[in-house]
Specification:
Radius of gyration: 21 Å
Number of helices: 16
Helix content: 40-55%
Strand content: 5-15%
Shape: globular
Bound molecules: FE3-S4 cluster
């Protein structure tokens, strides 16, 4: 692999032990995956942020590092809302450890936005090379924005943030971004909600596995694309997908899908995921809510009072930009929390059944929270929470 003289010097330890180790991680990955060079990145998004997932060893590793990010780097959701963890009912012992993790990332120059939707806060453009790690964020920037990133692990995303480069392989290369399977949706999708697209992603991720799907027969907006990609990344290893006539690479390249396996998905396969079971909590915002999703929650809650716990998750920057909406939502008794989510917060483990409007949460809540998950539209989520 070609390394510049400056990279060689870093690898020899001339910029300190941490930078040396970080570049070693990137070079090792590049060698495994056949990269012939490094590529400068515009930004990084670093997972491995919740103490629930990284534990004591992760915290000790972070504390041992001594360098700062040289490109904008954003932290993934953590196990609690930083300013409201007591109110959410987070165990003080957990909060102390989580605060130590956050402090370690801050010392490394990682921005504490703690979100899986940094694309709402920072400009990311078509063709930008990135090192992002949260799977839904990776899927969104690759597919909906047309940026280029592999699905990094937390350590390799942090390494790229500190070095400012990543190894150029996989989805950084145009030839690896071509479709590998066609999914024809044979349904009238004009009224499909965000939850329907989440359910489609839940189903399609299992069909696609690690192949790049090319969808035909759907025309989702960006919030629906976000839900589709997030769910496929959860039930499959999908880091990039295309939608005919919708997503930027599909529009620009007009892929020839002749000879690819083609699977038809019918409406009934999606509808049967919407099973009505009793729940003891409702959570929306997986991935973190867009401004339009907050607007929908506000509109649906108007004049109503929450009878079951209703959690809404969004990036702090999105909450700040929609303050009056968030205050109106909270007047119903619902809570809008930043920094965390229904999957990474240990607080959600106290519920036995959680209703969500997300295909990704439908996939992860059972394992990560030990609760049964039910998917429904945002209208149904609000109806269940208020009745
Ligand atoms: Fe984001 Fe948590 Fe869902 S990190 S994509 S809200 S599981």
């Amino acid at each position: 692999m070609y390394l510049s003289p400056a990279d060689e010097a870093m690898l020899a330890g001339e910029q300190g032990e941490t930078r040396q180790k970080m570049l070693e991680i990137i070079v090792a990955l590049g060698k495994v995956f056949g990269a012939d060079r490094l590529v400068p990145i515009k930004s990084a998004q670093v997972s491995g942020a919740s103490y629930k997932t990284i534990g004591e060893y992760g915290l000790l590793w972070l504390a041992s590092l001594d360098a700062r990010a040289v490109v904008p780097a954003v932290l993934n959701p953590i196990g609690m809302p930083r300013g409201r963890w007591q109110e959410m009912g987070v165990d003080p012992a957990f909060a102390e450890k989580q605060q130590a993790v956050v402090a370690a990332y801050a010392r490394l120059g990682v921005r504490l936005d703690c979100t899986c939707t940094p694309y709402y806060l920072y400009q990311t453009g078509y063709g930008d090379h990135l090192a992002w790690s949260e799977s839904s964020a990776v899927s969104y920037v690759n597919s909906v924005i047309g940026a280029r990133t592999n699905r990094e692990g937390g350590p390799s995303a942090l390494a790229a943030a500190i070095v400012g480069k990543t190894a150029c392989y996989g989805l950084h290369l145009e030839e690896n971004r071509h479709p590998g399977i066609v999914i024809d949706v044979d349904a009238d999708t004009r009224d499909w909600s965000i939850a329907h697209y989440g359910a489609l992603g839940y189903h399609a991720g299992k069909l696609a596995g690690n192949r790049i799907p090319y969808f035909r027969g759907i025309s989702p907006d960006n919030d629906r694309l976000k839900a589709l990609g997030a769910a496929m990344a959860a039930t499959g290893a999908v880091a990039l997908y295309h939608v005919e006539g919708v997503t930027p690479d599909a529009k620009k390249n007009g892929y020839d899908c002749t000879g690819l396996e083609t699977i038809t998905v019918e409406a009934g396969e999606i509808e049967r995921l919407f099973v009505e079971i009793p729940v003891d909590a409702v959570a929306v915002g997986c991935p973190h809510c867009s401004p339009a999703e907050l607007e929908a929650v506000d509109r649906l809650l108007r004049g109503k009072t929450v009878k079951k716990p209703l959690y809404v998750f969004a990036a702090q920057g999105v909450i700040d930009a929609n303050r009056s909406r968030v205050e109106a939502i909270e007047r119903s008794g619902a809570r809008v929390y930043a920094d965390t989510c229904m999957v990474v917060s240990p607080v959600m483990e106290k519920y036995s059944a959680i209703m969500v409007n997300s295909g990704k949460a439908l996939a992860y809540v059972p394992d990560m929270c030990g609760a049964v998950a039910r998917i429904g539209t945002i209208e149904d989520c609000i109806a269940v929470a208020t009745s």
